[in-house]
Amino acid sequence: MNKTRDPHYARHRYPAEVISHAVWLCFRFPLSLRMVEEMLAARGILVSHETVRQWALKFGQSFANQIRRRLPASGDKWHLDEVVISIAGQKHWLWRAVDQHGVVLDILVQSRRNAKAAKRLLRKLLKKQGVAPRVMITDKLASYATAKRVIMPGVEHRQHRGLNNRAENSHQPTRRRERIMKRFKSAGQAQRFLSVHDQVANLFRRPARTNSADHSRARARAFQAWTEITGATTVA
Predict the structure, then answer these.
(1) Do both 210 and 223 map to the same domain?
(2) Are 43 and 104 in a shared domain?
(3) What's the pTM value of the predicted model, to 2 decimals?
(4) Which residues cross the membrane (predicted)?
(5) Bridge partner list, 99
(6) Is the domain of 183 the same as that of 87?
(7) What torsion, rounded to 10 degrees, do the Cα atoms 98, 104, 108, 113 define?
(8) Which of 2, 55, 215, 220 has the largest CB neighbor count within 10 A?
């Protein structure tokens, strides 16, 4: 293999194509690091699972940030939900916001499920999105209403469990990753991993109600964007 000349991969033994493919596998599919190691080995690429982990840590967030900048503006209807996760035997809460199209806007891992935690999520969302939504949809947790009155007083708030299936469904990929990773080791690890995981999922998300031809075109655009973001070509 020839060494890549891309400055982002300077001093790395493997070229950009291999590194970007390994990072893509880590965040796109519910695979353990050892599974990724074996999949690369099947292609004749001998690299340890620890090296794969280091690649994911070094490049994942940078790729996610570039994906976020490339995505279209978020929808004007935000669905917010929180789910409990166990980290090192302690209960934590994963707060997530998605728009009406299913695009994950942001996530926040916190140790509390109260108004202070809800306010922190809303402030983070407003900072990242740059604009308040037209409608905010949540379950009946009172903390959302308290936080909204302070942070986004002019936004319409709908509280009904049946309206929030989109946000609740967005937790399912996290549950799969949680199982394959044998739970997250720390709140920081969960925050770092899921921040990248959800942005990669956004890029490769299949649009609702599309036929196979439209899906193929959307997937091709996603791969083209990934190539441009990572400075690599697809591994054959």
Answers:
(1) yes
(2) no
(3) 0.87
(4) none
(5) 78
(6) yes
(7) 30
(8) 55
